[in-house]
Amino acid sequence: MAGQRRHGGLNVKKMEQNQLLEQMIAQQAADNPQLQTMLAMMQQSKANKTATGEGSDTEQELAACRARLSKAIAKIKQMSEGMEALQQDLAAMVHFGEELAHAVGACTFCWGEDIACRACRGRGKPGSFEPDPALFQRFVLPAYRRNKTNLQ
Ligand SMILES: [Zn+2]
Asked: How many other CB atoms are there within 10 angstroms of residue 136's CB atom?
C-alpha cells in the first residue's frame, strides 16, 4: 500500500516536471522557428501515440488488475481475521463447557447424552463423577444457595 502511494507520488511529480519543461521549451521556441518545428513534430508523435493507445491499454489493465488484487487481499485479510475471532470464541465456549461439566461431575464430551460416547457410553450425566471442588464452588454453589433461599 505504502509502496503504491509512493509510486503515485513520483508519477505526479514527474508529470509536473514535464509540464514545467514543456512551458520552458515553449517560451524558448517563441522566437526560434527551428525549435518550433521540432516541437510540432514531437507533439504530433505524442498525439499519434495517444491515438493508437500505445501502451496505455496494457497499463490500464494492469492498474485494474492491481486494484482488484489489493481489494481481494483486503477481503481475504478481513475474512481470516473474522475466522480467527470465531475460532477464539469457539475455543472459549468449549473451555467453558468443559469447566461447567467438571463443576457438576458430568462427561465433558456428551454430558451423558450420547450412548456412543467413547468416554462414558452415555453414563456421564451430571453427578456421575466427582465434581471439581473449586469449579463446583464457582458455578454451582451460588445457584444452589439462590435456589435454597427461594424455596424457604
Ligand atoms: Zn460422554
From this structure: 16
Chain-centroid distance, C-alpha 126: 42
Rounded to the nearest angstrom, the gap between the alpha carbon of residue 87 and the centroid of all alpha carbons in its chain is: 15
pLDDT in tens, 37-82: 777 777 777 676 666 655 678 899 999 999 999 999 999 999 999 9
Residue 40 sits at φ, ψ, to 5 deg, of -60, -45
Residue 125 Cα to ligand 1 middle (Å): 8
Task: Give 96 Cα–ligand 1 centroid separation in angstroms.
Answer: 16
Ligand 1 centroid to Cα of residue 120, in Å, is 4
The residue count for the chain = 152
Candidates 111, 108, 137; CA nearest to 122 is 111
C-beta separation of 36 from 29 below 8 A: yes
- Pair 132, 102: CB distance under 8 Å: yes
Q: Which residue, chain included where needed, has cell 499519434?
A: 48
